[in-house]
Amino acid sequence: MGRGALTGAEWERLRPFLPVSNRRCGRWRDHRQVIDGILHRVRTGVQWRDLPERFGPWKTVYERHRLWSADGTWECLLRQVQAEADAAGEVDWDISVDSTIVRAHQHAAGARTNPPPALSSKGDGPGEHQDETPWQSLVARLVEVVLEVRAWAARGAGSPARST
Fold it and tell me: What is the mean pLDDT of residues 107-111?
C-alpha cells in the first residue's frame, strides 16, 4: 500500500457502496486499485498518462473516473459515506467560517509583526490523517474527488462545443 492509498479500514467502509459489474462488458479491474489511482491523481495532479503502473493501465483508471463522474457515482458515494459516518456519530456538523466568507476591515491588512514559525522537515511530524477516524479520512478523500468532478463539470459547461 503506497502513501495516500486507501487503508484497510477505509476500504471496508467504502466497499458496500461501490457499483457492481453487470457482467456484460467483461470483468472490471479491482475497484480498490482503480480508486487508489484516482486518489493519487487528485492528490498529486499528475497527468493521467503518467500514473504509476501499480494502479493498472492509466486508461482504465481514467475511464472509470470519467464514467463515475458522468453518472453521479462519486456524489452518491460521498452522500452514502457521510450518512453512514453521521449515523456512527463521527461527523461534526459545526460550521467553519473563513476569510472567503467574512470580509476583513480595510485596516486589517498589514505586515506581520512576528516572524513565521520555522518549517519542520518532512517526516518530523505525525503522519497524514493520523488523528482522524477511518470515516473522517474517507469522507475527506471523497470530498476531494467530488470537488474535482464538479470543477470538471464547470469547465465543460463553460467551454464551446467542439466538432471532431
Answer: 61
Cell numbers standing for residue 97: 467560517
Interior/surface letters 26-64, b for 16+ CB within 10 angstroms, e for the rest: eeeeebbebbbbbbbbbeeeeeeeebeeebbebebbbeb
Q: What is the 3-state secondary structure (H, E, C) of 118-152?
A: CCCCCCCCCCCCCCCCHHHHHHHHHHHHHHHHHHH
pLDDT digits (tens, 9 = 90+) for 80-102: 888 888 888 877 777 766 666 55
- Cβ atoms 61, 48 nearer than 8 A: yes
Which amino acid, residue 124? D
Burial of 164 (0-12, 13-18, 19+ CB in 10 A): exposed
Say if residues 57 and 27 touch (Cβ distance below 8 Å).
no
- Pull the grid cell for residue 65: 473516473
Residue 100 DSSP one-character state? T
The grid cell for 85 is: 459516518
Q: What are phi and psi of 98, to 5 degrees?
A: -125, -175
The letter for the amino acid at 140 is A
Residue 62 has pLDDT above 90, yes or no: yes
Percent of the chain with pLDDT over 90: 15
